[in-house]
What does this fold into?
Amino acid sequence: MRGTLRYMAVTAAVGILAGAVFSGQSFILVILSQIVVFSIAALGLNLLTGMAGQVSIGNAAFMSIGAYASVVLATRLGVPVPLAAVLGGLAAAVFGFLIGLPALRMKGFYLAIATMAFGVVVEQLIAVIPALGAHDGIRNIPSFLPGELWTYLFNLAFYLVLLWAARRVAESPVGLRWRMVRDGETPARSFGVDTARAKLSAFTLSAFYGGVAGSLYAHTVGYIRSADFGLGRSLDLLAMIMIGGLGSYQGGLAGAVIIVGLRFFFSRGFGPWLSVIIGGLLVAFTLFFPRGIAWGATLNWHKRLQVPYLWLLRKIRRRRTSMDGSSVVVSGKNMFYREAGEGRPVVLVHGNTGSCLWWRDAMDLPGWRTVAPDLPNFGRSDALDVADIDAYADSLAAFIDVLGLKRPVVVGHSLGGAVVMSLAARKPELAAGIVLVDSASPSGLKTPEEHYPVIELYRTSRDLMRKALSGVAPTLKDERLLDNLADDAMLMAPHAYAGNARALERFDYAGRAGAFTGPVLVLWGRKDVIVTEAMARETAAAYKNAKLSIWDDAGHSPMVENAERFRKELLDFLAGI
Amino acid sequence: MLVKLLQSIIFGLPQGALYGLMGFGLSLVFGTAGVMNFAHGNAGMVGVFVGWTVLVLTKSLPAGIVAGLAAGAVLGAFMDRVLMKRVRGLSHGSMLIITLGVLMILDGLALIVWGTEPLLFPDLFSGLPILWTLPPALNPSGMPLIIPGNDLRTFLAALGSALLLAAFFRWSKPGLAARARAQDEVGAKAVGINVAASDTLAWSVGVASAVLAGFLIAPKTTVAPTMLVNLQLYGFTAAVFGGFSSMMGAVIGGLALGVIEKLVVLGLDEAFMAGGVAGVNAVDFQLSVVLIIIIVTLAARPTGLFASKFKGKV
It folds into this structure.
C-alpha cells in the first residue's frame, strides 16, 4: 500500500511536470494527451494479455465502442463528459464480456483469430451505420474543457485512477488467478481456479479500459472514424505492451511514448517507414527483449540507478551513526560497538546484512552489561579481505579480549549464531553460556545457486534489501526501524554480500560444536523462512546442555519482532548462569 | 429465384476456391510448423509485387509468375529460418506476435518500394462467358446463368493447385515427413526426419501458395499493398472451417465459405428490399457476416468445424 502510494505520487508528479513544462505549446500537449490516452488502452490490453495471458488483436474495437458511445451520450444526450467517458467504458465492457464468452473455449491462436475478427466486424459495422456518420465518422466533437492543458490534466487524472485500480486488482486474488491461468490452465484449475471466470473478468476489465481510452480519445482529438480503430490500431496497442513490457503496469506508458511519439514524428510523408519501424520493433523486442523496457528499467533501477544515492548514504550514515557508539582497534582494524548497563557482560552478535542496531531494543537487561559490536565487514566497522565465519569469530574473540570482558554470555543471531558456534567450539572456556537465535545450524546453511544473482542485486538496491529484510522480520511493524535496518545493511562491505552466503555454505561444525559444554539456549520462530525447524533441532541436539525454545508468533528475528518477550526469555536464561 | 440462387453459387465457387487456396497455405504452415501466420496475406502480396515487376521488365507473364512464386518461397523460408527458429517451441504468443510484426514491416516496405498507385495486372486467362439457360419449367423468367470465362479458369486453377499440393503432402515422401513432424516432433526426429527442413518446406510452399492466390485475384483487386488483407481473413475462416490441421478441410471450407458469402448477400438484399431499407448496401455486410461466422464457429467448435480427432498443436 505504501509502495503503491509512493509509486502513484511519482507518476503524478512526472505527468504534471510534463504538463507544466509544455503548458504553452498546445501541439505537444495534444501529443501528451494522446500518449496518456493510449497508455490507458495499453494498460487494459496488458491486463488481458500480460497478466491473464490471452492474446487479443482486436482491443482497438473496444476503444471504438467507447468513443462512439461516449460521443453520442455527450453531444446528443447532454451527459457530462467525465460521466460519458465512464459510461463509454461500461459500454465497451459489455462487449468485452460478450466477446469473452465465446473466447472462453478458445486458446492461443484461435483466440487471436477470433479477437481479430471481432475487431474487423466492429470497424466494418460502425462504418455502415449512417447515424454514426458511416465511413466519414463524427467530426467537430466540441471540447468541454478550456484549452489543451486542462484536457491533458483531465486525461492524466483518468490514467492515474485507472493505473491505481489496475494495481489493486492485479495484486488482489483476482489478479493472482489471472496469472495462474496465464502460466498454466490445467494447474490453475487443479488449484480450484475457475478459469472461465478469470478470463471473463480479464476480458471485461480490459474492454472497460479500452472503452474509457476511446472516450477520452474522442473528446481530446475531436474527430473519430471507425477506420481509426482498425487492425492497425490493435497492433499498435500490442506493440506498446510488447515494447513497454508484457505484464508490467507502466510498460504501456513507455510503449505509448514510443509509438505515439513515432506517429507524430513520421506524420509528414514518412508513413510507410512508420509501419516498418513499429513492425521491426515488435519483432526485435519479441526476439531479443521479450520483457520489454519496463523490465530493463526495473533492472537498471536495482543495478545502477541507486548507486550514487547509496554512495552518499554510506558516507553520511557511517559518520552520523558513529556518534552514539564507540570504536576500538582489534587486530589492526576498527571495530564499532554500542553498549548499555552495568554488570556481567553479554555480547550480542548480529546476523548477515546486520549491525548492532538489530539489538537496539534488547540491550536493556537490568544487572547485565550488554555490548553489541558491528562485526568486521558490517556496519561501521572496517572491512576484512575475506568473508569467513572463522575470521569473524577470531575478530570477535579479539574484541572480547580488548574490551576485557570476563567470561561473557555470547548471543548470536543467524550468521552471528554461526560465528558464536565457531568461537565457542574453538575456545570453550571463553563463554559462560551461548544463545543461538534462529541460527545457522552446525552443518551450515546452503543458499540455492540461483539466489546469488539476487543477492548481488541487494548490494546495489536498497529497495530490494528492505523488502528482503521485511521477510526476515515478518511480524515487525515498526517501519522506521525497518528503514534504519535497511540503511545499516547497505553499509556492508561489497564483497560480503555473496561472500557471507558462501561462508555459511562452507561453515561446518557438525561434530565439533559440542566441544562447548556450557549452557545453551536455542531460540527459533516458527515463521522463519530461512532456518527450518529441523535445523533448529539439529542445533539444539549438537550441545549436551541445550534448551530449545520455539516461538509460534515470530519469524527469523525474534529480538526485533517481539523485543519484550525476547528480553524476558534472555533474562531467565541469564539468571541460571 | 432459383436462377438467382444458382447464379450466387456460380459466382461464389471461384471466390471460394481462392479462399480455399489461402486457407490451405495457412493450414499447411500451422499444421506443420505450429505457427498461425498472420503475415500470410502480406507475404503473398510482396510476391505478387515482385512478379508484377518482373512482368513489366520482361514482358513475359510466365516469367513474372515464376519469379513471384520463387520470391514467395524465399520469403517463407526466410521467415522460418531467421525469425521463427529463435522462438520455436518457446512460446506460441511470441511466434504470433512476430508474424504480426512481419505483417506491418511488409506492408510498409511494399508502400515504400512500389508506392500507393494501384498497379494493373493482366487477366491470367481470357475467354468469353458461358451462358446457360435452364429449361423453362425451372426458369419461367428465361434469364440465362452467366459463367464468366475468367472465373471458371480461376476456379479450376485455384482448386487444382490446392488439390495438387494437398496430394503432394499426402503421398510424396517430403510431404509425409512434414505430416509426421506435425503429428509428433520427437517421434519424427527419432525416425530420421529432418524437422527443420520440413518446417522450411511448409513455410516456402505456404507463402508461395499465397502468392498464387494473389496472382489469381490481382486482375480484380489490382496490385496494391492491401490486396490480400481481406483474402487472408477469408483464408482464416476457411481454415477454421477445415479445422486447421487438415489441408483438404481448408479447401472444402473455402468453397463452402464462397457460396455461403454470396447467399448471405443475396438473402440480405432480399431482406432489405422486403423491409424497405434504403441507403444500405448488402455487400457492406459481407465481410462482417463472414467474420461473425468465424467467431460463432470457433465458439461452437473451438478447433474447427471439420477438425479430426487428432489433437496436436496448441
Observations:
- Residues 2-300 of chain B form one domain.
